Amino acid sequence: ARSFGQHNIGGLLMANRSKRSYQNDVAYANEGLAFRGTYNFNEKYLFELDAAYNGSENFAKGRRYGFFPAVSAGWVLSKESFLQSNSFVNYLKLRGSYGLVGSDQLPGDRFGYLQFFNTNNDNYNLGMDLNSSTAANIYEGNLANTKLTWEKSRKTNLGIETKILNNKLSITADVFYEYRYDILTQPGENGSKNFSAIVGKNSPQLNLGSVENKGIDFEIGWSAKIGKKISYYIKPNFSFARNKILNLNEVDRIAPDGKPVPYANRTGKRIGEQFVYQFDHFVNDQTEANALNASNYQKWGSVIPGDVVYKDINGDGQITDQEDRIAMGNPRIPEIQFGLPLGISYNGIDFSVLFQGATHTSLLLTDAAAWDFPMYGQDIIGRVKKIHLNRWTPETAATATYPALHYGKYDNNKNSSSSLFLKDGSYVRLKTIELGYTISEKIMKKVGLNSARIYVQGLNLYTWDKLKDYDVDPETSTGGDWYPIQRVYNIGIDVTF
Fold this sequence. Notes:
The chain is mainly β and 497 residues long. The protein is 4% helix and 48% strand. The strands form seven sheets. The chain has a 16-stranded antiparallel sheet that branches. The protein has a two-stranded antiparallel ribbon with strand order 7-8. Strands 11-15 form a two-stranded parallel ribbon.
């Protein structure tokens, strides 16, 4: 790093190589070169150039190395003469970046570019009779693709940072766009990975997938004083990100009646989209139950009054797999996340609160989270919840929100892809509260210490959500086996000698 008057430059060149072994595996190896160059004029005009040339053992010779450059720039407008005399704007910066990154992390087996052959215990005979010698069975492994290469992502970011009103108000905002391509996929109906049965093997991995992701992040902060002893702050933040699958290399689903069902495709949807059977109504009476059973309308066995009836999306008279599942709700990963930190201090006493939350997220509840008397292995566990009180009975048929109860396994109602149990996972959580007291320096010096602060703290104190009847935390698993979020209390002291 050097400075020449108001010109400041910096440079970095780094080479790395690593090889690590794990048990009897072939050593994991990668290497690369990284470059970084920076320049700024008077901390006002900022430029940076980055580049990486990385090599990975996961690809065939001639395809192992990837070049990934990036460039960024910034402009501190508050240093310009036309803003320096402005008392309203204390700091203003515009910035942007564009770059390419790559990933060599392959799903499934390593060395997808190599064709492997495996053995098993099914021997076959050599000779004229059963007493002749035998040889081990050798069969072809997953199909290889010698042209495998890096998954790549082009990222663009534009941002602004500002402080105004004597640095009391600060705003940071970013908009971003990401285009991911050469994503590894395996062709088939909705990612089923299969070629025709004539081939007899799943397809190899292919760099054909693409996804886009875009959104915004921002934080607004206000910090000020009241008099000479009271200071406070509030810093709300918000982020929104939405992705879209542009190409999954999937084959269009065709219903048994020969009609296409494009709504079953993942292409054009979000990653992790929830595809479910749409709840229509509960079986009204035995007459309707008999008619449904006679027509084999649903594939999970006979139904009785009060059982779930699903909507026949493609109109073929039966509930089938992909043809009658549609995208509903939101993916599990929230599209919107937000937080609200607050704090105030007075004469050595400080108090802070953090609210944190998320929305545009859905949970597909299963097992003990939603079902009545679910099975775990050979055991049937009875967990009666508030939701079960409003079950279907002949007397509550008009108001019931839960199907008729069944003891043990019953796939028709206890369906892991039923919209009846697709719930809004939005929440707001009182994440932390902390109260502290910093002992004055005069007292600390008398006992030979620099400073000391005593505090009490609470974590995960309360959550506002729509899942109270299910006794499920919106950030944990959606099934029956999860470790609950803990409410934690701490008392502590920080001492500096």
